[in-house]
Amino acid sequence: MVVVSDMEILSPANKSGDGRADYLRKRRTLLSSDVNLIEVDLLRGGARPSMRQPLPDYPYFVLVHRAAVRPLADVWPIGLRDPLPQIPIPLLPCDADACLDLQAAFTGAFDSVGYERALEYSSPVRPPVSEADAAWIGATIAGPA
After folding, report:
1. Cα 89 vs. chain centroid, distance in angstroms?
2. Which of 21, 60, 64, 129 is such that its CA lies 20 to 30 A from the CA of 29?
3. pTM across the whole model
């Protein structure tokens, strides 16, 4: 079996402490190989993996590092209020990209596990958000009036 693409959904451990060092080693190995790397970072906290060019000021990102065009990467910055994008998943060079609808995948996983019952929505958001975003979060959690 040949690995063509590796998707990493970053966790708090990938972005801090010893777990960060382990993740960065794995990332360096993947980026020096023929494997395409897709990084999905839906965490506002912790340190982001470094890039040659600074990333724009957004809370979330998807990065697609295609083996054929490194060191370039495709970047999807995602705002707090934005739906998650559809992203390409690179396959073999002779094949068209697959398409992953991140919003549909996230919503399906969230709903199937019942996270709305498990998460503590009354606690302050960490790291803090702007007052406008905090108001939007509160209204979104409260639902339609």
Report:
1. 14
2. 60
3. 0.90
67 by DSSP, 3-state: which? helix
User: Could you tell me which residues are beta bridge partners of residue 5?
Assistant: 36
SS3 state at 74: strand
Q: Which residues pair with 6 in a beta bridge?
A: 37
Contact 78, 85 (CB under 8 A): yes
Coil vs helix vs strand at 98 = strand
pLDDT tens per residue across all 145 residues of the chain: 889 999 999 999 999 988 999 999 999 999 999 999 999 999 999 999 888 888 999 999 999 999 999 999 999 999 999 999 999 999 999 999 999 999 999 999 988 987 777 777 778 888 899 999 989 988 988 888 6
Whether residue 110 contacts residue 102, with contact meaning beta carbons closer than 8 Å, is answered with no
Closest CA to 40 of 93, 124, 102, 113: 102
